[in-house]
Write the structure tokens for this entry.
Amino acid sequence: MVRLPDKRTMLMFISTTRKEMKELGWDRLDIILITGDGYIDSPFVGVAVIGKIILNAGYRVGIIAQPDMASGDDISRLGEPRLFWGVTGGCIDSMVANYTASGRKRKSDDYTPGNVNNRRPDRATIVYSNLIRTYFKKTCPIVLGGIEASLRRIAHYDSWSDTIRRSILFDAKADYLLYGMADRSVVELAARLKAGEDPRGIRGICYASLSIPEDCLELPTFESASQDKAAFTEMFHLFYRNNDPMTALPLAQKQDNRYLIQTPPAYALSGRELDAVHDLNYERELHPYYRNQGKVKSLETIGFSIATHRGCYGECNFCAISVHQGRKVTCRSRASILNEARAFTLDPRFKGVIQDVGGPTANMYGIDCARKEKQGCCPDKRCLFPKICSRLTTDHNQQISLLKALRAVNGVKKVFIASGIRHDLVMADKKHGTEYLKQVIRHHVSGQLKLAPEHSEARVLQKMGKSGRETLLAFRERFFDLAKRGEKNLFLTYYLIAAHPGCTDDDMARLRSFVLGDLQFLPEQVQVFTPTPSTWSTLMYWTERDPFNGKPCFVEKTHRGRERQKEILADRRTKKQQPDRSKNYYL
Ligand code: SF4
Ligand code: SF4
């Protein structure tokens, strides 16, 4: 149970220096969290959220952000914790944060003070665990968490080394790994360690074992999964299917002479518990200790934004959110969201603009499925693909009402929606979809609305798990019609992906003519597909087969070929194919 906040967490940073510990009268911490991001105290930054939750549960906690690797000064500056070290690579997998899809080193890092990408080591979770062991020989347990650990918890394809890697728990030589959002499991882990009890029974944990506990479903071994693509595919199917807290079995995978054991996922927080997490009073600022290193860019977008829910029904094949956050959407209460907005208006830094109201997808707030609540997700059916399930309540009325109430908060001048909008959900809502879109156009976008169709070709969209172009075109027509009626000069931009498994040069050429012709849009930024750990698309990339029917699937793997696909779409030289801007380019 996530506790309701008490005064320990009233607007304060978590300690990152001895001086702060002293001010709290603490000589030793219970838990020290190490992160690959700068310490930004925000509800959008996992380490801050986990830190506040365990602080609120009564533990003494400290954070060390981006410790210096060349000496022990940083890692030892708070001493040794009593209960455990918590290690995360940060908000993004460190390899994704450090390299582009084409393998080039990224220069900037939105979560590093100064915005220069020079403080997050590659494979940060492993590196930080080693750093701890270097300076604290026989220390308390090292516990991994965050997206990097979560998505690398079993054998996984790692595109940066082009190999199947073992669980990160083994590579980091850590004691436990908490996967998923971990807000419930981290409190249980702390309680068990404090009581001197074995934490291996809690949900949402991975650990190493010499034998398989009863009732565990055994996955193909690491050895077979790394050598045989069919075994790897079978492993991923079993792993994915056992990801719902209502139905999942414990899993075991033999890796060398030990087993990785994964207990079933932690139950999703209730709406009330999610409120409690967001009510923990975040400073929404970089900790002062790190401020002389420069500003963090991410605060420009997350500083005064509001998360209304967590989870996503989308299950796009290239996205890992369902493996990390789950396929269930949990919403905060309207009162908690409005209280957060009211609190913004009391902050002297707030200029009246809420930068975003949303979640992984903005328009899933208040949308639900009764079956999921009681029996868990359908094992053999998706909520949005190939068509929107009739049991999903697609009604946008709650969102309309929430947005209206946010606009009415005294001191709020503007409320933006920057999170992506699922246009297929809007179109599926026959009752309030048009009204929602009207509200979005009138009040919540400035200049442009971003959509993520990703592609136009049915074969490629099927590999992505995304809906077809017909819905997109219908949405586009409605959008421009409403914008015109409201006399708004708005336009649509589109996220598009090149080199996704199943996509050929010809598909990209067809996408180009669709985008220039039907969408009247000139693509400037095109994302090249990155095979990140633990997604269906990455499985397709590695095996070159469609995991759902076993058939061979073309995959462009060469660096040149992947870049070529991108250039086919983003090529600005072919003048005659460019859209006529005078004709409804945006209006
Ligand atoms: S809709 Fe967005 S957040 Fe949801 S699964 Fe698809 S890409 Fe991920
Ligand atoms: S019944 Fe439909 S909406 Fe509910 S979990 Fe199953 S597929 Fe998703």
